[in-house]
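R.M. (postdoc): so does anyone remember the format we settled on? I'll just put the structure tokens first.
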């Protein structure tokens, strides 16, 4: 995969972060959820948070660089955010005066006053390692703009206009590097430095940075996964954002990447957009199929109002209306054979399809097995536990403990789950009786001789 293709995949995820919450179904200005709007990664002007009209002005993160040839390291930072833009509809009144209105219909075409946004992006750097160790700061600016667009009727008479206004937003990025112990801690901080006089909520919002995130790229070295690299002399500090590896995972350099996405939404390493998704819906807490079906069920009048609310809403509706039956079927899900390429060793009779009731009853979690390091592990096997990427912090207490395997399960995504009871747990018999087990992935388990006791 080329660098351009990798950058495209990174930006697809970054765009989803950028627009998360921008405009929500039913995508109409009058909807309550679009009257009180919110987004992640909002950096307000300095002082706005203290007086209760905005959010904190900065976000910061620390990530790790691996070993490198000192002279060949260069780092760039791309700061991206949405710049608030006020769209005001005005009608032409008597004597040539412009009168602001909520909406204006010209020859059946409706225009609505609305707060929209434009994308702002600043590419900073590159910086060498000497510069980073000394610490660098660079400023950026999203300029203020006022644009006008006249509205004419079918006879060519000007009856109104649309005025789009953006107030200037100023920012600063500070980047530094602290080497030590074969790893280098890289710190990045983004600040909104815009000075505002009027401390009202409207002004604070208009001069905030919305959906702010940073894409870090490095040549001459690779960033390390913070999910896997946990041995730090001092804990890394994250404030209102979290850095994850981005791009395409490289099997030759596992747990590393030349790109990091510093995101206000916590993601896993190498996040990606599902290939079945036809485009952003600005609401990742919903699934595409549900939102698409809801959009298609809207009346023509509702769709017209949504289209008038925001051009991006119009794009969403147009895209949904273009979907074919095959496209809609793809949104419903992906059918996967859970045994294709699986390490599970169930005793499914020859000629029996995996999805049939006959195959279902032939899978026995207590007798099925999984191959781990070439060793067949099944119910009754003795193993040593080595928890790694788990959601439960309590798993850390099980590291190095000896356990007996009770069951082997495989979910619909093809992931294997090994249910165990601890050898030294006095309640092990009770857990076995009512089926309460601790579950681990095969890579978190080391097969042991049956008579192992330590």
């Amino acid at each position: 995969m080329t660098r351009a293709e990798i950058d495209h995949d990174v930006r697809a995820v970054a765009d989803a972060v950028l627009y998360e919450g921008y405009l929500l179904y039913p995508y109409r200005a009058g909807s309550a959820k679009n009257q009180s709007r919110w987004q992640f990664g909002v950096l307000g002007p300095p002082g706005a948070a203290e007086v209760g009209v905005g959010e904190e002005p900065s976000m910061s993160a620390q990530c790790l660089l691996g070993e490198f040839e000192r002279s060949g390291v260069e780092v760039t930072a791309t700061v991206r955010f949405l710049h608030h833009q006020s769209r005001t509809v005005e009608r032409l009144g008597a004597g040539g005066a412009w009168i602001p209105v909520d909406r204006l219909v010209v020859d059946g075409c409706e225009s609505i006053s609305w707060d929209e946004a434009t994308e702002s992006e600043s590419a900073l750097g590159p910086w060498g390692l000497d510069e980073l160790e000394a610490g660098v700061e660079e400023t950026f600016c999203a300029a203020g703009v006022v644009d006008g667009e006249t509205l004419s009727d079918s006879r060519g008479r000007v009856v109104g206009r649309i005025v789009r206004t953006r107030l200037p937003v100023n920012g600063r990025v500070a980047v530094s590097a602290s080497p030590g112990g074969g790893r280098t801690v890289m710190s990045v901080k983004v600040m909104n430095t815009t000075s505002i006089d009027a401390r009202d909520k409207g002004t604070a919002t208009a001069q905030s940075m919305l959906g702010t995130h940073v894409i870090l790229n490095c040549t001459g070295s690779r960033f390390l996964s913070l999910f896997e690299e946990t041995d730090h002399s001092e804990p890394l500090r994250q404030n209102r954002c979290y850095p994850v590896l981005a791009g395409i995972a490289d099997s030759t350099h596992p747990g590393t990447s030349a790109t990091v996405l510093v995101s206000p939404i916590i993601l896993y390493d190498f996040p990606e957009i599902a290939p079945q998704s036809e485009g952003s819906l600005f609401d990742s807490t919903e699934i595409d199929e549900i939102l698409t079906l809801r959009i298609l069920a809207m009346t023509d009048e509702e769709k017209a109002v949504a289209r008038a609310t925001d051009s991006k809403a119009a794009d969403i509706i147009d895209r949904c209306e273009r979907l074919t039956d095959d496209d809609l079927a793809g949104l419903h899900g992906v059918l996967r054979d859970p045994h294709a390429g699986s390490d599970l060793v169930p005793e499914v009779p020859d000629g029996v399809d995996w999805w049939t009731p006959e195959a279902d009853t032939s899978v026995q979690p207590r007798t099925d097995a999984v191959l781990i390091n070439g060793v067949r592990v099944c119910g009754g096997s003795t193993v040593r536990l080595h928890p790694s990427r788990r959601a439960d912090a309590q798993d850390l207490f099980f590291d190095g403990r000896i356990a007996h395997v009770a069951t082997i399960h495989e979910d619909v995504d093809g992931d294997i789950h090994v249910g165990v009871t601890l050898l030294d747990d006095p309640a092990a018999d009770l857990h076995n009786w009512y089926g309460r087990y601790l579950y681990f992935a095969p890579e978190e388990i080391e097969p042991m001789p049956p008579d192992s006791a330590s």
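R.M.: ...and that's the designed sequence above, right after the tokens. Also worth knowing: The longest strand covers residues 74-92. The mean pLDDT is 87.
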